[in-house]
Amino acid sequence: AIAVLGSTNMDLVAYVPTAPRLGETVTGSAFRTIPGGKGANQAVAAARAGGAVSMIGAVGADDFGTQLRTALADAHVDTGGLRTVGGASGIAHIVVDDDGGNSIIVVPGANGTVGGLADGDDARIAAAGALLLQLEIPLSGVLAGARAARAHGVRVVLTPAPAQPLPGELLANTDLLVPNEHEAAALTGTSDPYKAAAELLATVPEVVVTLGAEGSLYAARGAEPVLVPAPRVQAEDTTAAGDTFVGALAVASGEGRPMPEALAWASAAAALSVQRAGASASMPYRHEIDAFTG
Ligand code: ADP
């Protein structure tokens, strides 16, 4: 089983020919509300990939909160650890222009209340084979989750996004770190992913740097790094590619598959997702991933 401790956001997406500048009003072509948040996205990705997933976090006491909870339940994610707290749910206000470029404002709302573990969370984490963490809840919450997982011998998989400096204790309690190339550069100050991965191995035993269409780089202590190429596909929408990748990777490695094989399977899942629009809507099901990998 897989536990996810992290964010749920309603993505409020406006599509415009050209994004407005400060003080300007423009007419958009479409608007959509799409359940998202890195935590929830990883949970849905893992569930669709065939994992038994439980989500720990918080939604607000508003309509978005109800919708976010329902979206997770519809994906067969256990929401017993998803609290409803007073106030607003987390939202991401996203403007997408005709070139596919975007600008995003995240208002954490209920996610900001997940500063530690609540009743039952320790047991949920202990019951899992892996705990997936990201950085869209307070660092104190992320750290509490990592500590609990380590205490129970549960594998800690950290996606260090959005990029920010990480406390040493968090890295010390992390088994697998999965930055994209920008996050790897932000953490190390080097834009060469091989060098960044080597540097990160000083603090964590295993690193996967995702490289977009170039694939992913796997590095473990005492072994040569392995570059796993991404399948060549026509990318339509790369939103949440990284979250899809991590969710599928957790499922495959949780089944005992060796890392290079698990990475190839996760790459297939992410490649399928980028060919379709919508973050969580684009995430593939297990049979689709199996069919794609042959
Ligand atoms: P993030 O979405 O976090 O920015 P990346 O852009 O590195 O992360 O993408 C994560 C993974 O998704 C990549 O390692 C790759 O497997 C897959 N992926 C992303 N973009 C593409 C693409 N254009 N074609 C094929 N696979 C892709």
UniProtKB/TrEMBL annotation:
<dbReference type="GO" id="GO:0046872">
    <property type="term" value="F:metal ion binding"/>
</dbReference>
<dbReference type="InterPro" id="IPR002139">
    <property type="entry name" value="Ribo/fructo_kinase"/>
</dbReference>
<feature type="binding site">
    <location>
        <position position="282"/>
    </location>
    <ligand>
        <name>K(+)</name>
    </ligand>
</feature>
<keyword id="KW-0963">Cytoplasm</keyword>
<dbReference type="GO" id="GO:0004747">
    <property type="term" value="F:ribokinase activity"/>
</dbReference>
<keyword id="KW-0630">Potassium</keyword>
<keyword id="KW-0460">Magnesium</keyword>
<feature type="binding site">
    <location>
        <position position="243"/>
    </location>
    <ligand>
        <name>substrate</name>
    </ligand>
</feature>
<dbReference type="InterPro" id="IPR011611">
    <property type="entry name" value="PfkB_dom"/>
</dbReference>
<comment type="function">
    <text>Catalyzes the phosphorylation of ribose at O-5 in a reaction requiring ATP and magnesium. The resulting D-ribose-5-phosphate can then be used either for sythesis of nucleotides, histidine, and tryptophan, or as a component of the pentose phosphate pathway.</text>
</comment>
<protein>
    <recommendedName>
        <fullName>Ribokinase</fullName>
        <ecNumber>2.7.1.15</ecNumber>
    </recommendedName>
</protein>
<comment type="similarity">
    <text>Belongs to the carbohydrate kinase PfkB family. Ribokinase subfamily.</text>
</comment>
<feature type="binding site">
    <location>
        <position position="278"/>
    </location>
    <ligand>
        <name>K(+)</name>
    </ligand>
</feature>
<feature type="binding site">
    <location>
        <position position="237"/>
    </location>
    <ligand>
        <name>K(+)</name>
    </ligand>
</feature>
<keyword id="KW-0479">Metal-binding</keyword>
<keyword id="KW-0067">ATP-binding</keyword>
<keyword id="KW-0418">Kinase</keyword>
<keyword id="KW-0119">Carbohydrate metabolism</keyword>
<dbReference type="GO" id="GO:0005524">
    <property type="term" value="F:ATP binding"/>
</dbReference>
<dbReference type="InterPro" id="IPR029056">
    <property type="entry name" value="Ribokinase-like"/>
</dbReference>
<dbReference type="InterPro" id="IPR011877">
    <property type="entry name" value="Ribokinase"/>
</dbReference>
<keyword id="KW-0547">Nucleotide-binding</keyword>
<comment type="subunit">
    <text>Homodimer.</text>
</comment>
<feature type="binding site">
    <location>
        <begin position="37"/>
        <end position="41"/>
    </location>
    <ligand>
        <name>substrate</name>
    </ligand>
</feature>
<dbReference type="InterPro" id="IPR002173">
    <property type="entry name" value="Carboh/pur_kinase_PfkB_CS"/>
</dbReference>
<feature type="binding site">
    <location>
        <position position="136"/>
    </location>
    <ligand>
        <name>substrate</name>
    </ligand>
</feature>
<dbReference type="GO" id="GO:0019303">
    <property type="term" value="P:D-ribose catabolic process"/>
</dbReference>
<comment type="similarity">
    <text>Belongs to the carbohydrate kinase pfkB family.</text>
</comment>
<feature type="active site" description="Proton acceptor">
    <location>
        <position position="243"/>
    </location>
</feature>
<feature type="binding site">
    <location>
        <position position="180"/>
    </location>
    <ligand>
        <name>ATP</name>
    </ligand>
</feature>
<comment type="pathway">
    <text>Carbohydrate metabolism; D-ribose degradation; D-ribose 5-phosphate from beta-D-ribopyranose: step 2/2.</text>
</comment>
<feature type="binding site">
    <location>
        <begin position="242"/>
        <end position="243"/>
    </location>
    <ligand>
        <name>ATP</name>
    </ligand>
</feature>
<feature type="binding site">
    <location>
        <begin position="210"/>
        <end position="215"/>
    </location>
    <ligand>
        <name>ATP</name>
    </ligand>
</feature>
<dbReference type="GO" id="GO:0005829">
    <property type="term" value="C:cytosol"/>
</dbReference>
<feature type="domain" description="Carbohydrate kinase PfkB">
    <location>
        <begin position="2"/>
        <end position="284"/>
    </location>
</feature>
<feature type="binding site">
    <location>
        <begin position="9"/>
        <end position="11"/>
    </location>
    <ligand>
        <name>substrate</name>
    </ligand>
</feature>
<feature type="binding site">
    <location>
        <position position="239"/>
    </location>
    <ligand>
        <name>K(+)</name>
    </ligand>
</feature>
<feature type="binding site">
    <location>
        <position position="273"/>
    </location>
    <ligand>
        <name>K(+)</name>
    </ligand>
</feature>
<feature type="binding site">
    <location>
        <position position="276"/>
    </location>
    <ligand>
        <name>K(+)</name>
    </ligand>
</feature>
<dbReference type="Pfam" id="PF00294">
    <property type="entry name" value="PfkB"/>
</dbReference>
<keyword id="KW-0808">Transferase</keyword>
